[in-house]
Fold these 2 entries.
Entry 1:
Amino acid sequence: MRVAVRNNGNVSNVEELEREVVKLREENALLRVQRDDFERLWKALRDRIYGKKTERFANQPFLPGFGPDEHDDVGSLETPPYVDEAPDDESDEVPEPKKSKRKPRKAMKIGSGVPRVEEVVEVTDDERACPCCGEAREIIGYEDTEKLEFRPASYFVRVLRRPKLACKKHEEAGVFTPDLPPQVIDKGIAGASLLAQVITAKYRDHLPLYRQARIALRHGVELPESTLGDWIRHSAWLVQAIVVAMHQRILRGSYIATDDTSITMLGAGGKKQSKRAFLWAYLGEPGDVVFDFTTGRSRDGPKRMLDGFQGYLQADAYGGYDQLYLSGKILEVGCMAHARRRFFDALETDRTRSEMVLAAVHELYVIEREGRDLSNEERHALRQARAAPIFDDLLKLIRAMGDRVLPKSPIGKAVAYFMKNHVALRRYLDDPTLRIDNNRTERVMRQIAVGRKNWLFAGSEAGGHRAATHYTLTVSCWELGIDPFVYLTDVLERLATTPSAEIESLTPRNWAAALPK
């Protein structure tokens, strides 16, 4: 039945008014959701820039039957590391201000390879005289006091003097001069150690070339930035064979971890035509880290780099890898740190559910820590006995959450990610050589993250490929704990005389293995 009312002389339909009210309420609810989404996005961006890079949280609940033992030091376990993505806030409650405990000062360590320069403190005649009899006192020993000093790095010119030989009786024989030993750059002034220093300074110490040129000028050597760039380009061409050998060795293995990060590449028109490009890392055994550069993030890059590989591929859930798994020759291994991070991001909006998941994942990491030094057989038994039941219960818990959360909410997205990738996330339990997460790759990518804050961009596509080449060697040295300057100096000198069949002996891993123990 229609009911009409008179309002200031205007007749309005009550049903139409009710529909308008319902419509306005729906629009208002939608605006609230959008507002909440924008607030979460703003907070995430704020925390990414200014927040602490940690994902710890206190008072963790545990799944029934899988809580910590009373002797477990749960708070001492570090959470999975991540590069520049972890939010700041860990609790909705504002903690009371606490006096920060001063961390104990670490003892300074000076390596045995640092040279010692002895200086004897002179004793005056008055100090030498005995206060009792006046006779000169004899030296019975020394008391040493060490002071750490610094001598600035210095350039020097190595002069190769080649004798010119001639026979006085036979001028027609001419003058003989022995050939130069193999040079890194023919007719170039740069020696192997200088090239190694320029590469190490840029790709390990993150010093752009213009800063290196400024430092050299303080030492009385004028090195134009364009010249340094030429040396970087020539060195990349020289060591390319080593990078190829490392890539082939990774493909022969049974496990590869990969990740990517974006960098800026300048176009032909300079900064106005800059675009996003990408550096990809492919990791095999420790010390085998190969970088690749692409101008886009399509699947073509991973497809080209992983052509011929058969085994496990550990990566995030980026869709560009999906085609690689279709043949069955490559098995996907998920990253628990990525799955965990999504539930950590949902703490603010759904704390109870998020904490239950985070606590279970925490237990999985506790088990991984305990099995770190075990043999493969012992680690596999440990995972099957303790980690597998926790993972299966966690999967049931998250599956039950699926019908109770909003799909577009933070907790809904976290649940969807876990359910979509749960087979890949569980795969590490079946092979003791696999890792629970891809954090080793993310630690490697930190080198790029720090570097791009200094050199800012790649000048061209060719420059991006050169960066990938040099990062391959310097980051591999970093993983092995060897000095890239020492490695590059030796390798650049030996490249000219090393047969192509023996190039693999110059890779960082083989070079380090050949060092005297």
Entry 2:
Amino acid sequence: MSLRLRVLVIAVGLAVSPAVSAPFAVAQPVDQVTLAAIRAEGLSRSQAMDHVSWLSDVYGPRVTGTPAIEDARRWAMDRLRAWRLTDVHEERFAFGQGWSLVRFHAHMVEPQVMPLIGYPKAWSSSTDGTVTAEVVRVDLRSPADLETYRGVLRGTIVLPQPARDVPLLDGDVVLRMSDAELAEAARTHVPAAVDVPRPGRAGPSFATQLQQFYVNEGVVAVLDRGSDDVTVGVGSGLPYETQRTDGGTIFVGSGGPRNDDAGSLVPAVTLAVEHYNRMVRILEKGLPVQVELRVEAEFHPEAVAADQMNAFNLLAEIPGTDLADEVVMIGAHFDTMHAGTGATDNAAGVAAMMEAMRILQAVKARPRRTIRLALWGAEEQGLLGSREYVRRHFGDTNTMTLTPAHDTLSGYFNLDNGAGRLRGVWLQDNDTVAPIFHEWIASMRDLGVTTLGPRGVSGTDHVSFDAIGLPGFQFIQDRLEYNSRTHHSNMDVVDRVQRDDVVQMAVVAATFAYNTAMLDERLPRKPLPRVDP
């Protein structure tokens, strides 16, 4: 999940669009026989953790534009076809260059030898083989500071940040939502964020100037301790106050462009804060520090042909019956960051949604509407896959020019908040859908599903649907260690995924998809977002 990016929803218009659905007049009975079969299949014969292991242990990390994600795509398509889903296909879109790590090692070699725990940033360039260089602590906060270091950094490895405190591992390291927190979620309305234009900036940003300064001055590499600080470029997406589990957990961001300038910046590596701090303290004593470093990365150029572009969305369906021309969609982002194997972000979500489709096939469900699975590409770079899908199939958010298919989607349900069990649904300011969902979750209380939160949430793929007036929902989810340990870190591995939670995720997702597919009418819609002239 790309929490670093906050994709913001356009403000809701004052006039009601003709596309808005009227509230349901009466409650509609659910298919209890099929729902019981879904539960029995999902809870007793789950394959969800096997999906997680294949996606993460075998193919992870699945960075967009790399051979690994292409291998994972072929595996997923084969599995979906084996379950006899229909119209299993990919839709390609432009992304830029892919990036994968070939080799990495780092050691402090003076004043003592110490292996450094760290990880290169995504899209980092390579060092010239294995290099050994003096380490320099720099303090560069504004363009005026550049002159202080001009001509003195050639051949050095730079530490751009001061040491920081390392707190004890206390507080909410593992988050399971309490009754009080669920009650707060159910009553607190937080409006969806509105994109506020920022004043234009003349010339390149200081972060851009700084990266070019390092190149021009002949810096060997930049080592940071993880941050959203402008001096180190793009961070991991969550502040270190939230990421509470230091002790070798590395929260790694991106370290370079993926366009034609890919590989042009100085190699960039994030270190464990404890190892970074030690080197800073030694330097502050006036003692020299040397580091031996090797970063070897491979860039994967994008093909010119449209069907060979580096990014893709993966689609598959269970055909509907009498309302087959209408669609219910469920989905999760298929791509990951690079430091771990992408287990909680987002193999757990992908596995649960794939498992939901397997369950529906296994119980021979006959949904009235077509149920479509979407596994999104390039979510981590800005919801690129879901945005592109919405643009191609449903309309242009810039003009609110809609396609005929816009009228056929009943709803979209998304998973992308880690590997914890589902506790309910964020309503995304769509209060008219609440009575329907209330009826559905009443039968899932024993699974822990109890809560409808009125607020609009952002940062993941349901926003692409919401932005064009379609009912798009993110499930309320126990975060477990997602915020504190695994989000965009080297600890995002299968061992952090809890089996019973992922099993429950799949059953709940299958239930929501099937119930939505069986309604007489589509889910109610909000007014179309307003487009300012």
